[in-house]
Task: structure prediction
Amino acid sequence: MSAATPELKKVTTHSVQAMKDKGEKIAMLTAYDFSMAKILDAAGIDILLVGDSASNVMAGHETTLPITLDQMIYHAQSVVRAVKRAMVVVDLPFGSYQSNPELALSSAIRVMKESGAHAIKLEGGAEVEKSIKRILNAGIPVMGHLGLTPQSIYKFGTYSVRAKEDAEAQKLKDDSKLLDQLGCFAMVLEKIPAQLAREVSESIDIPTIGIGAGPHCDGQVLVTQDMLGITKDFKPRFLRRYLELYDAIGNATQQYVNEVKAKSFPTDAESY
Result:
């Protein structure tokens, strides 16, 4: 008899914390659909974030604000169906949690029940404390998000680096400790100075996951379409492109068009 296939060990809030405790970096990427999520999961990604960045990447909006809770649940359902190992975290979209804790809890419950995801993520610190408490009290894991918070882009007026001034840096430190004390299992730190991210990461117990926040966070996240070079014109300093798929896909498509026009596809061998 052949040996049994070893069971995949699912990534959970407990194992994510264990990674930080033993100094193992956490790898997170975004996913919005079944096909991509299946590839990323099989490649060993720890966390898949069903980000509200789907508003930009999948729907072509200028900001993350237009995407709805129903749309986030649809994307999350698609990702969850593909995943065998990774933890799936889903963004609560703009307007689904900021206004009151009851709405926040209702939104989080819908995500968990209808998608089968493992946790939710929301932006902000003390401003959303009551919403975080309500969600956590229902037994739903929460990932925080501090620094550049894209849902507040019209308040900031720019996507530039946050918390460079002392007052904003101190608020970020205070908010990070608050999220830790409330019971969030991790937090994203977006586009803040590397030294500040280091101080925060070393001062709290839960893992930090950086994007544009330097190498000292406990993990890193990128938008998959950015990392693969599908979004050709987006070139922030923090982005490392591992492929250039925009050009590769374009070239392949041109070749397909040419061969169809030239009647060289399909051949007899490709026909029934």
